[in-house]
Amino acid sequence: MLEPYIVVLGNEKGGTGKSTIAMHLIVSLLRQGARVASLDLDARQGTLSHYVANRQRTKHTFDDLLVPEHSSLLASTNPNRISAEQEDEQNLKKLLENYSSYDYIVIDTPGNDTFLSRLAHSFADTLITPLNDSFIDLDMLIRLEPGEIEKLRPSTYATMVWDQKKEKACRSGSNIDWIVLRNRLNPLYSKNKEEMHRILQMLSKRIGFRLLAGFCDRVIFRELFINGTTLLDLKDTGTSMTLSHVAARKELSDLLSALEIPVQKKIKTQQLANEAARVSA
Ligand SMILES: Nc1ncnc2c1ncn2[C@@H]1O[C@H](COP(=O)(O)OP(=O)(O)O)[C@@H](O)[C@H]1O
Ligand SMILES: [Mg+2]
User: Fold this and answer.
1) Whose CA is nearest to atom 16 of ligand 1?
2) Which of 32, 57, 119, 129 is the most buried (most CB within 10 A)?
3) Cβ neighbours around 147 below 10 Å, total
């Protein structure tokens, strides 16, 4: 049986768009006819879980929105660190096992370093790290010091990803496709934006990630959560499309194809073609 393809959304900083992008990816895969399971490891905050619950609640109002099979997993509260990590590992592996018949598993992680999050990274086939357009976010990938741009050193998060890549290679012999994208970009030109791009391009070769274009900062992203909908559902929910919505959907379809997430064999090619035509229409 084909193993599920696992996508992890991760970085050690909150508010960069992990849960928002996770939901868009989940809905895109569902609309292609795939069986999708989602897993919220940021269970204390529970943004993805609430997003899915909102969608479940409104699904019949809007032409039967597709909803993933969803679970959330809280970290163990065992005061003994080693026992807590063993429990976490068992719980995560059990959930992944339960989802073994799915085509995709999308895992959202918290904006801080936890054992569960690290472990989830080691199961990723694709890791997506969204960054806000600020040097503070860049500091998550490299230690930035004034005037030392050329001597950048990987930061704790980048080092952690490297460790999990090694872990995965030892376990299964396969690689993690690490993708970094910039989210909430100001559509206007700025020197900061250009400098961020230059540094990220340089880092992508040094640290080993693919740099993809993300999303501009758009109000629509903040409005979708309440109904559990995404940019892909706008037509089905009868939302009148503005130019900004059209531009946002273009950014999304560009991102989804650049992610190069493999099509699982169970999805019918015709369904894929239909969905691509709908998104670009
Ligand atoms: N491209 C965007 N434009 C505007 N707001 C965005 C965008 N992406 C995310 N947001 C908003 O930013 C906030 C943080 O997003 P979220 O997905 O919860 O981040 P994380 O999961 O990394 O903490 C939310 O209020 C969300 O609606
Ligand atoms: Mg989140």
Assistant:
1) 17
2) 129
3) 6
Q: Does residue 182 have its Cβ closer than 6 Å to ligand 1?
A: no
Cβ proximity of 174 and 168 under 8 Å: yes
pLDDT tens-digit profile of 106-137? 999 999 999 999 999 999 999 999 999 888 88
CA of 127 to the centre of ligand 2 (A): 15
Which domain range does residue 18 map to?
5-280
Whole-model pTM over 0.90: yes
262 pocket-lining for ligand 1 (C-beta < 6 Å): no
H helical segments located in 32-126? 47-58, 81-98, 115-121
Condensed to tens digits (0 to 9), the pLDDT of residues 252-279 reads 999 999 999 999 766 655 566 666 666 6
What spacing in Å lies between the alpha carbon of 8 and ligand 1's midpoint?
16
Confidence of residue 1 (pLDDT cuts 50, 70, 90): low
Instruction: Please report, for the domain that includes residue 214, its CATH number.
Output: 3.40.50.300
